[in-house]
Amino acid sequence: MPNTSQAIASAFSQRRALMPFWGQQALEENAWLGAWQEMNQAPLPVNSLAYVHIPFCANRCVFCGFYKNAWKEEHGTPYVDRVIADLQHAAARRVAGGSIAAVYLGGGTPTALSGPDLARLLRALQQYLPLTDDCEITVEGRISHFDRTKIDACLEAGANRFSIGVQTFHTPLRRHLGRKHSGEDAATYLAELSAGQEAVVVADLMFGLPGQDEAIWANDLDVALGLGLDGIDVYAFNLFPGLPIQRMLEKGVFPPMSGLPTQLGFYQMALDRFAAAGWQQLSNSHFGSGLGRERNRYNLAIKSGHSCLAFGSGAGGSHAGYAYSIESDLERYLNAASPAIARVSRADPSQHWVAALQGGIEIGQIDASLLPVACLPLLQSWQQQGLITLLQNSLWSIVPLARFWGPSMARALVDAA
């Protein structure tokens, strides 16, 4: 590693990020309804967002911290009924104004729902939300659940972007992670989904997985780049306490975790592969093909602090200076009156610069003019280490390899303020 790369590799001892509700004051439960009413009386800004959570999975992947409810067929229709009722309830109380430029159906596994339920949910979103004409409407899915009938149902109901979790094309590793389909099956599926260009198709890959060496990661990148995809996410694996994979590591099912320097090398490999293929880096972890169909609109906007309306058990949103979450216990959610709020917090006005900081870091820039003076020595230190370079005036560019540390850089600047 050249000296600059060594400095980048040693810049942080761990990957850290700002957690949801950071820097916000939680409100007492008796103030939640008033806050929600206040949010409804504040017009949405132009190009806001909406998130719908589908909290079901047919099985738990060992690396995932989002598993909540086991999928059963009888869950689907009542759950969609409830989400549509929440959409209708909110629409009747929200003042006119503003627009929503991106909607994301996440989970869990949205594509566990039946085709008819997916279609009527998508149509309800268009009926009850002020979507822009070119709104990005994403359905997150897994190969196991997303057959041609469901794909067509989503397309006919207005979905224009599919995000498919793959993680790796290496079949033995996929089996260990809890994935049922082989790597070859996954590649064939994605190639067929992309071929018709009926919607933007994005796939997720992970690097730094236990047992994933350079050859496996290089093959994952090469396979993904050859499938006609519009976008590819590359995420560093983080081992959070309590995940099933942690117990598997302790029992020796997986080899030991790779260290951060190895993960940094994997990130550099991804940068090199995407650049050679003519792909554009749209955020720290997301790349779009040279065709330019992928906008990555929701992911960029949510990290920049845009207003986001939340629907469904476990969903989180923010608007008008508040952040809120919806009841995550499925039974309590289904039985509660709309909007089934489980938490509300108020943003600290003194932290108005944090969202702009995070949004800038996602596209590889830091605007020092937005930061408290206490942050400036850290920027000077990063310049000396080769992590950032001055573009103009107070605007700094994060060097490509250092974007691996993007969340850690945001956290460090906030801690320094």
UniProtKB/TrEMBL annotation:
One of its GO terms (molecular function) is methyltransferase activity. PROSITE patterns: RADICAL_SAM. Keywords: Iron, Iron-sulfur, Metal-binding, Methyltransferase, S-adenosyl-L-methionine, Transferase. SMART domains: Elp3. The keyword Metal-binding applies. InterPro entries: Aldolase_TIM, Coproporphyrinogen-III_oxidase, Elp3/MiaA/NifB-like_rSAM, HutW, rSAM, rSAM_sf. PANTHER family: COPROPORPHYRINIGEN III OXIDASE, COPROPORPHYRINOGEN III OXIDASE. This is Heme anaerobic degradation radical SAM methyltransferase ChuW/HutW.
